[in-house]
Fold:
Amino acid sequence: DKRLPQLMAKKKSQTSPKNQTVITTHVNADFDAMACMLAAQKLYPEAVVVFPGSHEKTLRNFFIQSMVYLFNIIELNRIDFSAVTRLVLVDTRRRSRIGELSRVLDNPGLEIHIYDHHPKKKDDIPADKEHHMLTGATVTILSNILREKNIPISPEEATIMCLGIYE
Structure:
């Protein structure tokens, strides 16, 4: 895609505003994690998407080459951690799995929303809002919510969500 360098340059120049909602997932993100971030972005359109660390090489190559334009993504080093007032966690609920973004967990008044399919554990991050179901992929939970709320998705978004379900 000839637009890719321009899109990446635009994304690199973005910084996070005050009162920021951040959507993230676990380090070493897979297709379910990426699909969840895209679906969550439909629920939180004002939010930015941030990968918390390295992500799987296959995912990175697919994402960079074909779908970057679907995300309101910014780089981790562009986040003002003190400005994050809502953290949306998808496909994880563990402090140890979100890398440097765990620093925002101590922000005063931070609101935490979690969408996850993994079994609950004692040391999970406490959530203000939580959607949990033991299912094969977290994107199943989010796609059900999108359907219930009649939030439309494009064919490209549907493709990513299907990749998350069938990875």
